[in-house]
Amino acid sequence: MKRTQSESLYKDACCHIVGGVNSPSRSFKAVGGGSPVFMEKGEGAYFYDVDGNKYIDFLGAYGPIITGHAHPHITEAITNAAHNGTLYGTPTRLENQFAVLLKEAIPSLEKVRFVNSGTEAVMTTIRVARAYTGRNKVIKFAGCYHGHSDLVLVAAGSGPSTLGSPDSAGVTENIAEEVITVPFNDPNSLEEALHKWGDDVACVLVEPIVGNFGIVEPEAGFLEKINELTHQAGALVIYDEVITAFRFTYGGAQDLLQVTPDMTALGKIIGGGLPIGAYGGKTDIMESVAPLGPAYQAGTMSGNPASISAGIACLEVLQQDGIYEKLERLGALLEEGLQTVIDNHSLPATINRLRGALTLYFTPSPVKNYDDADKSDDILFSKFFNKMLDQGINLAPSKYEAWFITIAHEEKDIYKAVEAAEHAFSEIEKE
Ligand code: PMP
């Protein structure tokens, strides 16, 4: 597949944009380097690049695009919003309407606040938890990603009871020392950390179903145990549902799994493809936020009519009958097809899937936490990624990401992807 225009645009981009990309996850560094594909148009389940190549898209823009690209209902909502002015700096009726829609879907959001990204949403929940509890420390889980604010760019220390170390230059040791990282699906480590640091812990932050080291579900009772241990320690439970809200069901992972946090951070799907974030939770906790309380958070762009209109339109699409059944049906078809490919070959691989989201790891053993996911073979993934791309299948250029199916995908797209995977596995095996 020729991608000369992409290559030339990437060269130009590198002269003007740091690393040639506006988010590091878009670079092809982890898959052998080279030029990322410059897409020109997205339509339903498909992408068309600047060289005129067509792709079936399983990236879904890292999660938000659950309706497929350029869904007509969302496009119309954005167009109408643009005609009425894109930013007011005043409250609007739309914000009320959207807040009610979100609360109906995720009842633990007694009060919400709209922001502009998942990063902002999570960052603020931590500030609010600190303001509410008067404590400083944060416990999070290894491999979960919560955006790029300082506090969550902290890596695990040498054990579950040790303080973290900076995961990015520019994050200070002082900040890292406020964060403790424990393994996912390991209640004993959480208990140990809370035992050691409990009186200082403001919150335990978790992706209730992990999306950032592939799709990893909590084991039975794990989320309940987080609630129990955290509340015993006098701290708050925060769910980062930036990926999971409206991905698996009309509502959050908390609605699917019937476990309720104190606060929730949202983003991605709720913006229908435009920039957005939101956070919310119990009324008395949320009343710590300005103008009612002492925790400050503000935003010029927050609640802008374009993002809110796109979000409302996206949820309206997701309210239709059969949406999540379709995602389940296509997800099962993809899993079954890929499993047959794995069974037909000798490459070590395993699949995690929930409804329309799936990760193919190049490791033979089950993946239940970050260490398991990390064993996925970098070289095999890189070969697989490039061979899929050359056959017109667009995946995320990282072994830790999920394939996202949208409601625009059809059976034929799944069959094509499986056929491409069969070919890719055969080629890799021959090398
Ligand atoms: N939380 C989770 C679980 C995420 O996956 C992401 C982004 N991938 C974020 C937070 C940050 O969101 P954003 O990129 O919109 O800032």
From TrEMBL:
Its EC number is 5.4.3.8. It catalyses: (S)-4-amino-5-oxopentanoate = 5-aminolevulinate. Keywords: Cytoplasm, Isomerase, Porphyrin biosynthesis, Pyridoxal phosphate. Pathway: Porphyrin-containing compound metabolism; protoporphyrin-IX biosynthesis; 5-aminolevulinate from L-glutamyl-tRNA(Glu): step 2/2. GO terms for cellular component: cytoplasm. It is an enzyme of class 5 (isomerase). The modification N6-(pyridoxal phosphate)lysine is found at K268. Pfam families: Aminotran_3. One of its GO terms (molecular function) is glutamate-1-semialdehyde 2,1-aminomutase activity. InterPro entries: 4pyrrol_synth_GluAld_NH2Trfase, Aminotrans_3, PyrdxlP-dep_Trfase, PyrdxlP-dep_Trfase_major, PyrdxlP-dep_Trfase_small. The keyword Metal-binding does not apply. It comes from the Bacteria. It is found in: Cytoplasm. Its cofactor is pyridoxal 5'-phosphate. GO terms for biological process: protoporphyrinogen IX biosynthetic process. Belongs to the class-III pyridoxal-phosphate-dependent aminotransferase family. HemL subfamily. NCBIfam families: hemL, PRK00062.1, PRK12389.1. Homodimer. PANTHER family: GLUTAMATE-1-SEMIALDEHYDE 2,1-AMINOMUTASE, GLUTAMATE-1-SEMIALDEHYDE 2,1-AMINOMUTASE 2. This is Glutamate-1-semialdehyde 2,1-aminomutase. It comes from Alteribacillus persepolensis. The gene is hemL.
